[in-house]
Amino acid sequence: MTFLSALLAADAAKAASHAAPAAPGAASSGPLGDIIKLFGDFGVDGPHLLIQVINFSILAFVLYRFAVKPALGQMEERNRLIEKGLADAQAATQRLAEAQQAADAKLNAASDEAARILAEARNAAKAAVEAARAEAQAAQTEVIAKAKAAIEADRVKMLAEVRGEVSRLVVDTAAKVLAENLDDATRGRLNEAAVKQLAR
Amino acid sequence: MSAASVRAEAKRLLALSLEGGAVSSDRVGAVLAALAKSRPAHVLRPLLRAYLANVRRELTRGEARIEHAGPLAAADADAIAAHFSKALGRPVRPVARRNDALLGGFRVRVGDDVTDLSASLRLATLAKSLS
User: Fold this and answer.
1) Predicted complex ipTM
2) I need a surface site. Which of A11, A134, B32, B100 has the fewest CB within 10 A?
3) How many domains does chain B have?
């Protein structure tokens, strides 16, 4: 930069030395001369402009080579990473949605299977309860019938026993009464009647 | 002698002991005397036992054993014996024994046949029909 400044300063001095004699001629060159003069008034002249252009180009090249290009590369890398991250995130979101969908489907299937198993279990339990109830009712009926039959048999047996006992008591009493009250005359008549019965 | 031959011999001896279809004491005595002379003792014992059983059975067959409650007239006993003689086709003599447990009537046994016309049997039948 020092070199360039010195060069620009020398060039400016040289331009200033040539500016005075050329001014009348330039003034007489027309509108182009006016424009050039106007640029000159603003400090813009060819050599300076050229040097500045070269200087700027060098600066631009250096900046581009060592600052902008790496920065752009980094930005592109970052953009790529970001895009990759976004794509990955989107894919992950997609996979998550798919997984969620699959999980929901499996959950629904499991829920349906559970409902089916529960319904089957309920039906089986209901059938088992009905079968057990019917069996218990049949057993109860059988037990009641057997008990009734046993009671009836006991009643008949008791009646027969009572009847037999009463009959035995009656006959025994009658036999005792007859044995005590029958005299020989009566027994003789009974014997005669028996002989007549035998003869018939 | 075997048991069968003993039974057959006893049956033959019983036939020799009958007179007019009834057991005769004279014939029995003659049979016993003949046996004592003709048979050895070890053969005689079973033969005499079988002969005795046959004689008892035949005597039983010729008796009408009458059990009666109260007095039974001799004419009634004879009538009973005559009834069984006619029914069985052989002479039967009455053997009466009083048994007041019969209450009234009588029970006649001829051999293995029993005829019961007693009041006690009627009461027993009544009790059985009521029970």
Assistant:
1) 0.71
2) A134
3) 2
